[in-house]
Amino acid sequence: MSDEITTEVYLDEEEGVSFCWVATEPVIKSLDALLEDLHYTKGAGFVWTLKEITLHSEFRPLPGETNIYAVGGENGEDYDNLINAARKAVGLGHSVYILPNPKGIRTADFIFERKGIYRLYDLKTIQGKGSAGTRMKESIGQANRVLLNMNSDYNARLLASDIKDYFEMNPNAVEVLIFKRKKVISVVRDHTQSPIFNRLFRRKYEK
Q1: What is the pTM of this model?
Q2: In 155-187, which positions are buried (b, 16+ CB within 10 angstroms) versus exposed (e)?
Q3: Per-residue pLDDT tens over the stretch 109-159
């Protein structure tokens, strides 16, 4: 977010001098500073910061991709997983911004933007058959939305239980978004509070 610094300068009127205002140019925050701001802003300020991040000059279109933007890191160990999930999100109509990982700042993985709506997601690629609960716990403190990209035949009953536990242990959690092949499932807190959540989730997941 840009802040305009204005300095009020008072001079002694008894000596025949009045006061004036001195304004500087707007301050453009670094991308690292904006990413750190996400830990301290809420509500409209949080959304504004997400937008400011996506507009930052460090982001460039990713060569060979459509509507995917990054600032580097194409050789990172998790790069293939990030691209795989990003392509699925683009297929759903999102523009995807892959976030960097500055030293000393806990960051999520993505900002998704669609029709002026900005959302922050931490990606967890699920390879095994019993790791989703642990992986979601790792995202606490990074983002209030988790994206599970399912690359295994995960038991639906266990996953429903993992998601419910995640919402119970993280009061700031807003959404668990699931990519399972061509299927997309969004789970929010209210869903998990239903007495038939497990049954409804399994119906969607296994269909």
Answers
A1: 0.85
A2: bbeebbbbbbebbeebeebebbbbbbeeeebeb
A3: 999 999 999 999 999 999 877 789 999 999 998 999 999 999 988 999 999
